[in-house]
Give the backbone structure.
Amino acid sequence: MNQPAESPVLALPDMQHQWLPFTPNREFKADPQLFARAKDQFYFDLAGRPVLDAGSGLFTTPAGHCRDEIAEAVHRQLQELDFTPGFLRAHPKSFELARRIAGLLPEGLDRVFFVNSGSEAVDTAMKMCLAYHRARGEAGRTVFVSRERAYHGVNFGGVALSGMVNNRRAFGGTVHGVSHMRATWQEATRFQIGQPDQGAELADDLIAAIRVHGAENIAACVVEPIAGSTGVLVPPRGYLERLRDICTAHGILLVFDEVICGFGRTGEAFAAQSFGVTPDLITMAKAITNGAVPMAAVAAARFIHDTVMEAAPEGAIEFFHGYTWSAHPVACAAALASLDLYERDGLFARARALSPVFLEAVASLRDLPLVTDIRGYGMIAGIDLASDGKPGRRGQLLQKKLYDNGLHLKTTGDCAILAPQFIFSEAHIARMTEILRSTIASLA
Ligand SMILES: Cc1ncc(COP(=O)(O)O)c(C=O)c1O
């Protein structure tokens, strides 16, 4: 199972000082679930027990854990150039990385701005939209249209765009001017794997938003091509195309948040390519470094970049935005090594080839009495479980039991979200399915 030879049993650390993110802290500390090591398809707990990683970490690590190629690139980089300020200074690897990413993107989207998390990417994309419209003399375009059940990170812009109530309840009211379209989940298409065959007309909610706000006030429509964190809502056939047409007709920018989809999850480099729809901006994060170092980016269409550049006086800073860690040399080294790995091992093609096996395996769980819906596309799938009366409680129990039974994945509410690594074999898929089946059955 590829466990590193030297793997001592580790003691439980003193956990009182850390405040954990998106975690029931008190419950976790009473019954902690820690990973001490990882290699390829497996995590290992403190006792060295393997846990199969069917979540690619957190959608971050499709090439498998602790890849030597990335570790060596990071090590070399730390000895060569550990940090460069990103403002008025730069280093060659970030330009090389931007060029490599531009080569993976749909044609025309080839200007790349580096940030450090998906949340930062979303807020950066929002600012780019505002900056673009302002540069064109349309500073009144400040409204954003997003969707119910969307997840766009935790910074204020992204929370305002998001459509998951627990994330918004306390913090969602501070940024105004966001209109939410309906989510694309439909009762009628339950258990359809791949793109649902009905629901394209849900895109007309964007027209409804135009009727309410006036197109001249709308900056952008922001969607995840596949809404990931909410439970894998695959876009109905024709839906993204329709959003694209409406945006184009009304001068509204279309932003795809590909923080989960990007880097092969849908079988192509980006979901924009899988679905054949080109947005004006794409956010990306997670798998950009195979999860090894925090990094994210926004790709903008060249016309957006050029408009912002040309509107600023000669010699002026064109875009007043950036982070201390933007294009950190170590992150760039990790990202370049990851892209090399993806390319050398043909991992996006491998994701595409493995997808039918994965989706069929997940679909085979539909006979379980607790399972109320299954959706999936490429190498991501969601399994809804019936609530036990308190939303989220069954999902949390599933999460715990899966850990005990040797499987890692993310749950949101009562939905299990599977996003296996692209280096899974059919045997790993079979093992994943077996553990899921017995664990879900045990909850009934
Ligand atoms: C679509 C999408 N956007 C943004 C984010 C936020 O990314 P981060 O957690 O890196 O800030 C996520 C995280 O899962 C995401 O799925």
Observations:
- The two ends are 31 Å apart (CA to CA).
- Residues 25-63+346-443 form a domain with the Aspartate Aminotransferase, domain 1 fold (CATH 3.90.1150.10).
- The chain has a mean pLDDT of 96.
- The first helix runs from residue 25 to 30.
